[in-house]
Amino acid sequence: TMHGRMSKLRRSLSRSVLQLHAIHALSRSHNHLNSDAYESRQNAPNEDLIHKFASPSTFNQFKEIVQGNSENLREIINILDEKSTLDANYSKSLHKLAARLHKITQKATCEIDNGWTSAAEQFDMQATIHSNLSSALSDDIVQPLRAIQINEERSVRASSLFVEKQLKRLKEKKADVARAKRLAYTAAKDLERLEQTADTDKTNQNKYPPRRKKLQDAAKKSEDAYVFESIDLEKMREMTEKVLQRAVAGLEGIEMERLAHSQTALGRLHRKIEQLGPSLTQMFTRQTNNLDVAIHSSPSSFLQSLSPSQTPSNNVMLTDTFAENFAEVMKMERRRESLGRLAGLLDAELQRMYALARVEDVRSQQISLVEYVEYLYYKVGESLSSLEGRSSTSSHRLNTFQHRLKDKQGLPQTILVLPLTEGADTVTLPGLSSPSLPASSPISSPIQSDCNDTYEEYEKISDEGFYNSNSRQSTVIDDPSLSEEDKKVCRVIYDFKPQNEEEIEIRAGESVLIESRLGPDWCYGRVITPLGRSLPPQQTMGRFPTTYISMQEASIFL
Q1: How far from the centroid of its chain's Cα atoms is residue 106's Cα?
Q2: Alpha carbon distance 20, 239 (integer Å)
Q3: Residue 14's pLDDT band (cuts 50, 70, 90)
Q4: CATH number of the domain that 546 lies in?
Q5: What distance in Å separates the CA atoms of residue 344 and residue 338, rounded to the nearest whole number?
Q6: Which keywords does UniProt give here (predicted)?
Q7: 114-171 pLDDT, tens per residue?
Q8: Which of 32, 131, 415, 482 could staple 91 via S-S, CB 3.0–4.6 A?
Q9: Cβ-count burial of 20 within 10 angstroms (0-12 exposed, 13-18 middle, 19+ buried)?
Q10: Strand partners for 531
Q11: Residue 556 domain-assigned (yes or no)
């Protein structure tokens, strides 16, 4: 019997040693991220914390606290990550807005408008600050904390699983002990009941010994099993207590590590905010200085400093009748009649204006209505003089500002480009870049060096003398506008027979005096050196084709 009990004790101790090795192996397998998940986190575990929570009834409370804090840390990391993303997106949006504002205000010349440039610079600085803050949150706080939180979450899960398995074994061992106890009680009760029956039955004692021996062996066996199961339970309890102590120490280390890293992250955030302080102060100081300049600027000073990119002028539209256009084919008598009727109409209108005393009702530096009608009359008179072959003996002050072009319908249009400001040397027609078009009258277009060349671009018209007269000039001035040097002599290379009254006959070898050009195809003038014929006493002027003469021959000037 003693040998049997020692064998059972040895088997129980062997099972305990095997369980201890299994526990250590399980501990190493669940803590592969850290060789010692429970002891390496701190050198001196908190004994008070172990006494409080290193029990099966209170361990889950401490585990839930650590798990809750880990989940809160994960949520904090997610919030900071979202904040970092928002800062990055906000920085990009601010940069775009600043670029749009810079594009709008880059050509601003007013100090008030330049104030918005300061706002754009503020947007850029704010965008840079948010970009730096986003990078700091992501690199210095979010990523380190996320790595720590993931490791801590795994460690907490491993500790919890390890403790749960150990508590499950302890529960199973308690169940084994309870079952062994119940069997021991049952065997002892059966034996005691048999003994009591044998004590009362004195007549039949021979039938009890075999049964008594059987029950005694069963009771001893069950009691031995109950005792050894209790010893194994105590060993399991002690081992569970050690596991709980180590688990509490590990969870304590996890929580200490979380708090330490949280403090480090908060310190980094605090230092980043301290670094942003001077940048914000500099930004607001610079913005305030620039805005003060814009706020205290004078709008009237800016408006007075404005000037156009070209000389301001008024374009006065003149009349251009069909009879005035010598480029159009028209019988001379009908042209003379039409021009005479138009001159009479304008003369009558002038007489009516003189009677109404409209001469003084004008601005001092611009053309008056009376002067406008006077110039129309002068223009028609010049056409009549050219038609009759007479040289112009008078000039009008507005000749300097006359310009000829064509309208959208291709019809000739004469305008007066009158400068609005004093001291302007020239006036250029705004918005026009095409070459000048043929003149509609044989009077004001000078002859170019080559008959086949087109006119130059719209010539700049000098307004010298426009503002020099203190009073308006009426009618015309006896100052010839066409000098003799403006006339050009050309050699005729082909014979030309006139087809209508406006054309003149020219012959090869003759010299012609060109008074003016009628577009690129016709010239207006007269023959000065006839060959084999005599000219009439009063020579008639007319037009002839440009292609029938040559400018490359030697020419003379009258």
Answers
A1: 14
A2: 8
A3: low
A4: 2.30.30.40
A5: 10
A6: Coiled coil, Cytoplasm, Cytoskeleton, Phosphoprotein, SH3 domain
A7: 778 888 888 888 888 888 888 888 888 899 989 988 988 888 889 889 888 988 998 9
A8: 131
A9: middle
A10: none
A11: yes
